[in-house]
Amino acid sequence: MSDTNSTNALNAAETLLLRLVRAGDADGWRQLVNRYEQRLFAFALGRLDQSATAQDLVQETFIGFLQSMNRFQGNASLESFLFRILRRRIVDHYRSRGQHHVVHACEIGDEPVHLNLENVPSKDTTASQHVHNEEQIDAHQNALSVAIGSVTNELRESHKFRDLKIAEGLFYAGLRNQKLAELISIAPNEVAVVKHRLLQRLNDQVCCVLGPVNAASERIETDLITAWEVHRPSCPKRSTLRRYTLGILPPPWQDFVSFHVETLGCRYCLANLTELKSVPTPNRRDDRLFQSTIGFLKPTLD
Asked: Which pTM value belongs to this model?
């Protein structure tokens, strides 16, 4: 059984919640808000200087989710989708104040690599060309998602945690070979060799789906960081994070999760850990966020 996220569709609990919310079920919406509110707030609070602002942006995130729910295809987890909306709200918040702010997935990293899978067409692009381009981008994303899931699953199942560290250091945190080699205490050429092997395997798998013409290796390397962040295949499950906090994971897994959350500083997992470590109190949650967003809940067609 995997201890990390899957790049595939929603899990059973998320599928049920989404079905209820799409049907306009108020109790389903309350469950979704309660499930994700605290980890989203922990993420926002780490990027902002005021608790009230963080609360406002989390509220906007849930409203944004309801407004964009029809566009959610279920090819990533609900948590990842909500985090992506929240990141955009944080960036927009700073932009409205005349500040440029980049929200990295990890606390460690070199200069950010801005990768956009939703390419903006030129002004000369016709409607039919735009649709064709979007279809190509969607096909490439889907093929790359399957390839990432296959490769990371193979690394986990074979307990090749060094290679998995290299993969997420390169394609998730965006580290350069030299920096990553120092963190893992290996030679930079070892990182380069593993990187070349991983890219080749990913390219081969994408080519199997799209063919060699549509799956250039440079396109894969360009899209990997964004695709990795969308699907987060190396992020530990919450149950794994809980066992990590108790120190009861098998040593190889304990070491990998430590690298993921403490060395790379995955902000999504740190937000989950903040929620998990918080001392539970009776009636800790209140209905303010639910009540402020329920008016936006409308039944939708699948």
From this structure: 0.81
